[in-house]
């Protein structure tokens, strides 16, 4: 086997698919593909509204990935025969008090400085775009370039496309990275046995740290709780992000009347509890932003973990262990960064060269500090 | 068969158990026993805190049933070998604004007038009894006589006790009351076939109206949404009912760390949707009353229907169709009224006489109006 990939989430499968397209033989190991962070992803493709000062290299990576999305989605839908729910209606950001509005202005200024497409709107103009928004909002910002995709549909399509491209899936838990002669030589399985491989890719998301055999990685679980609602057909045309008195909430329509409301950001280790407080805050803020949410059906509540890093950027490329490649630490940008991560890691696997765009994101940056 | 009972909820099974104890042969028909209103019951035994002016006959019935509960629960636990979770810690009623406190005073006056045990408490004394209550409450009322029972455990125990007493359970949907010669003669099953019986008991809860063969009954579904939380061990010693700026919420501890928060009261027909607004309001009010609820796990949300009547009282005893006995329409008091209903209907089935206590609750009262 040329490549063994630990983790069959969005990142692991997309890397597997792209690597297989380049003629490599690939095995993916995951005991329950699709039940990790992708199950709780809202699917926002939002490099602009997620942008922060001082993260320009990450912004470039995100923008490059967003630019790849239309072709990536089209190719994936053709290869899998399945829809991925790409929506290009743009994103509205709205605010409720003076501080929220000041934050909108700061975001606008930053976006214009970066040459990005963003437009400040009066409350009236904001509500003309999304009439279900509350009249109590104080201002808005339209970001045409921020889109969304259905995270669960994307996972299903990637699984089908990877299989169609010849990727082998082993349904077992990864127990360790096999190491021989100072080099990764495959994956050990919890159920016994191993997958020997020329190169190992670590794509275990929030579970990437602490894998026996692998070097220590600065990845921690960042808990997020989200809600899935139904009955929202016609309620919103695109994603709405809001600052409700300093608290962030987003509402992302998907499928036929589906609406995802997210997400809490909690440093609580691997705690999977859906809490009364988390659900309350999400419902409260969503209803404040779009009062009609009251009438929607609450279909599902769940909690998962983003793979967080100290600088909110992913770990891509070679690790300190020869033969072990990293594709993890995507934090809040896992769905967005799937295409560029897959392209960059597949390039590394096929040619030995990590594309320049991904170079700032090797694990070495933490060793240097 | 002496008796065929339509409905294997708390009422149907308790009637079956008591009737079998009196030597009658009994069959209960239900396609999914335990999945109706009992699944969403908080299990409050609260004739006093539920008491309203002008419902004195209902209050007497409720108090009589509450008085039967300790012996009923003990006998049921002995017969089934299963716990029913009777809690006798009493109930606290708390209020938040001036109107809420005025409502507490009115409730107190009514309770004292009825000779019931109730004690008005300062905010400080209220919190001494339940330290997890918010310091923001404005007043309290302690009602020692209002208890609780675990509605789901009660159903499981009744099913076991009824079976042990020789009750036959048919797992099928009731399609109609069989009528011959102007008299109920059994139950027709949706899956085909019938259960012939000397007397038929209608105990279908919210589904009691509109059964083919039965006379029209003034029972309508009254939707209630509740939440089940976990991790609440030690949070509350007994039931807390609250008026939060005019809105009612209750928190009922059960089992090991379980907490039920209820309930919405909605006239929406047979709509089983768990709504964002319903869950939000319950969480909001519960957190307002006991801030520590924020940290609890949200385990389950569900919606069921109470069998409502025009005067909030049950329909007990003979109907306009000879051979058809009613045991339905218990609205918010189904769990509480289970023992007295079972005793009264079993007495009627065994002797032909409805006890005086139940006489005000025949369906005739609606015909008279």
Automatic annotation (TrEMBL), chains A, B:
Q: Which Pfam families does the entry mention?
A: DAO
GO BP annotations of the record are:
thiamine biosynthetic process; thiamine diphosphate biosynthetic process
Q: Tell me the organism.
A: Modestobacter versicolor
Name this polypeptide is given:
glycine oxidase
- Molecular function GO labels: flavin adenine dinucleotide binding; glycine oxidase activity
Question: What EC number(s) is this enzyme filed under?
Answer: 1.4.3.19
Broad enzyme group: oxidoreductase
Which keywords fit this entry according to its UniProt record? Oxidoreductase, Thiamine biosynthesis
